[in-house]
Amino acid sequence: MPNKGKNKRARSTRRRGTGPNSQSNPMSGLITDVKMPRPLESRVGRTTTVILRNYATVATDSSGVHTGVIPCDPSATLSSYYGSVTMFPEWANYAALYNEVKLVQLDIRLTTTYTYDGKQAQAEPMIIAGVTSAITAAPSGYAAVADNGDAQFWPCLIDTSGRNRFHAIRFRPSAWATVTTPNPGSSTGISAGCPGGILLYLSSAPVSTQIATVLITGQYLLRTRV
Q1: CATH for the stretch 47-185+192-223
Q2: What is d(CA 62, CA 209) in angstroms, rounded to the nearest whole number?
Q3: Which of 95, 102, 94 is nearest to 132 (CA)?
């Protein structure tokens, strides 16, 4: 007859980890289900969208002329017609974190600050237009701005509506540009980075006078390539 008691004790010994093989396995009874840490996730090539804003005054010179450019380049400095302010002061912070940039949209909202006195009925209106190619100089007259397809007039000196005048460029260049040179120009024949801008021209206005304020909003794509 088989010895049932002896077999039962052997099975019990194996369950308790005190059998003949327990001495050769020092890790017996320890937790071995250890999760390995996940590898760091690469962000190379991923894009981030940022929206930057600033405002400036809009003024005429000693001849009663305003000939301005609000560039798409986020690192630019505006001309004296806008108080020579930096386009987007926080741009330097983003340039330190990313390698490349591309424009999505630039828009402006103009609000007149000139007090209409009933004497400017024959004054010329301001003309505004967006340009998506390289801008080499400020507009020299109305014709230079009117040559663009989205040109529009704004009677800023007699506008009492209290509403903003809105104008935008929605344009995504085909190539990226480095954050240190957001507007590399079109010498290579390829639109890259943040070219173009919004042109404004006004003449026959009160001399050396602030006529409006402008809210500038830029939307950009940023990415890290290395």
Answers
A1: 2.60.120.20
A2: 9
A3: 102
Kindly state the tokens that stand for 151. 């040109």
| pLDDT per position as a tens digit, 172-220 | 788 899 999 999 876 555 778 999 999 999 998 989 999 999 999 999 9
- Per-residue pLDDT of 78-132, as tens digits, reads 999 999 999 999 999 999 999 999 999 999 999 999 887 766 556 689 999 999 8
Residue (of 54, 56, 60) closest to 75 by Cα position: 54
pTM: 0.77
Domain ranges, ordered by start, for the chain = 47-185+192-223
Burial tier of 96 (Cβ tally within 10 Å: 0-12, 13-18, 19+): exposed
Find the angle CA(180)-CA(169)-CA(140) to the nearest 5 degrees: 85
Region of 123 (left: φ > 0; alpha: ψ -120 to 50; beta: rest) is: beta
Q: Which of 218, 222, 203 is nearest to 76 (CA)?
A: 218
